[in-house]
UniProtKB/TrEMBL annotation:
One of its GO terms (molecular function) is tetrahydrofolylpolyglutamate synthase activity. One of its GO terms (biological process) is regulation of cell shape. GO terms for cellular component: cytoplasm. Residues 94-213 form the Mur ligase central domain. This is Mur ligase central domain-containing protein. Keywords: ATP-binding, Cell cycle, Cell division, Ligase, Nucleotide-binding. It comes from marine metagenome.
């Protein structure tokens, strides 16, 4: 269980009954999570309100694939949990095949330089659920992977940035179309008051913009 899983457990454990599963049982023993550990058989006999899954897990190729596919509607991400508690905060989410970490870091530095309470988090190594002392003025700069976005159910962002698309992670998504759709969920989940910034020269994004029902304001940027 990595940083995302640990942050999710720490965030939820105070007010919820949490069960944990990982193929590597030693992880829980080392981190004193043994009391919450369930084995695969017990997990498959259990019922849960929600299943918080690590983005790195491919539900089609894991030990719990049958159980997870059967309960796919219950699968959520740390982004969903965060949004359900902090939907009033301003959120800027950056994704793309290349350059998202650099862009997110740069934007965070610019916001901090303008005296904003900016938090750099997400797939960049700082789990979004690990953020502390959040106020109404706190801004979140989120780096999001296609895996996180694909699994998310509730997450919405005020500002969506899709830098570029090139064939990647196709062994996971199955096709370039599925990969593009996963990224593009950031935009299709937005409302009229939101903004989406897309690379005007990216052939996959241009095609997706034309075919999709979009409510937010699209701003095309030529990098």
């Amino acid at each position: 269980m990595g940083k995302t899983g640990i942050s999710g457990y720490q965030y939820l454990k105070k007010n919820n009954q949490i069960s944990l599963y990982d193929d590597n049982k030693n992880i829980f023993i080392e981190k004193n999570f043994k009391k919450s550990l369930l084995d695969r058989n017990k997990i498959q006999r259990s019922k849960f309100d929600f299943i918080l899954i690590s983005p790195g897990i491919n539900i089609n190729k894991c030990n719990l694939k049958n159980y997870l596919k059967k309960n796919q509607k219950k699968i959520i991400t740390d982004l969903d949990i965060f949004y359900s508690h902090h939907s009033k905060n301003r959120i800027i989410t950056i994704t793309g095949t290349n350059g998202k970490s650099t862009t997110a870091k740069l934007l965070d530095l610019i916001l901090k330089d303008h005296k904003k309470d900016s938090r750099l988090c997400g797939n960049i190594g700082n789990p979004i659920l690990s953020q502390k002392k959040i106020s109404k003025k706190t801004l979140f700069v989120v780096e999001a992977s296609s895996y996180q976005i694909a699994y998310s159910k509730l997450f919405k962002t005020n500002y969506a940035v899709i830098l570029n698309i090139s064939p990647d992670h196709l062994e996971r998504h199955g096709s370039i179309e599925n990969y593009v759709s996963a990224k593009f969920k950031l935009i299709t989940n937005q409302s009229k008051k939101d903004y989406a910034y897309v690379n005007s020269e990216d052939k996959y994004l241009k095609k997706k913009v034309k075919k999709s029902k979009i409510f937010s304001k699209i701003i095309k940027v030529n990098p």
